[in-house]
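Example record

The entry below shows one chain as it appears in the dataset: sequence first, then structure tokens.
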Amino acid sequence: MQQSPGGRPRNPRTLLLAEVAQATQRLADAGVPSPRFDAEELAAHVHGVKRGQLHTVPDADFDARYWEAVARREAREPLQHITGRAFFRYLELHVGPGVFVPRPETESVVGWAIDAVRAMDVVEPLIVDLCTGSGAIALALAQEVPRSTVHAVELSDQALKYARQNVEGSRVHLHQGDALTALPELDGQVDLVVSNPPYIPLTEWEYVAPEARDHDPELALFSGEDGLDTIRGIERTAHRLLRPGGLVVIEHADTQGGQVPWIFTEERGWADAADHPDLNNRPRFATARRATP
């Protein structure tokens, strides 16, 4: 083992960890919300190891491309675009420019949906995911509700490219189309409709984090002056698709808590409309049940 100038043994695997520490500071100075995690994740990606194995990378194997990746993240390019992958519940997904990167808060939406479907007295539940993007929600439901049939709808050509990679070999049926007119052949048969639609008001553009505003597709972010245009359309689609007693689960912004359940009114054929919190106890998604005639 090499000796330090003071005669103590020198750890031959310290360079990468030292560079990660420097990268963490650079990312923090750039306003990146999770600088240490991102610095470690980039190091793991560049060096082909897991984050917990960074200390095993010898100094001689340090790859200078790490600093190229750090510079991209410093410029607020999404971490997932640099690594080409995103993690969602038990999934690892292909993502990149042109597709919405799934967020941790959506895992709460899916968790509720999974519990609700499992509680149904239905042997083989029929599920529709509208505005599927990368396919994250649809894949999670197909994986965690093994006897379900899941249809996923996406309009964007670019997003579909990633969704097709992600659903390949799964039981998800992927469709290109508008969420507001999708799947008329399933009208009145669906047990659960779930969606993470665009819901940011156009007036909020300047306040959106640069990772989303500058890199996520606008089609997946913005929806009218109050952000609720697409949700209003999905309310009509969900009512058309669902069987009586079927459920809709729809994500919204935490600032829209209380507004979305009022879209799913008794006059429109809904019952039990309610808001639900995410893991940070912020209103994150609304649910409703199609009323029985």
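Notes for this example: The longest helix spans residues 15-29. Confidence is low (pLDDT under 50) at residues 1-10.
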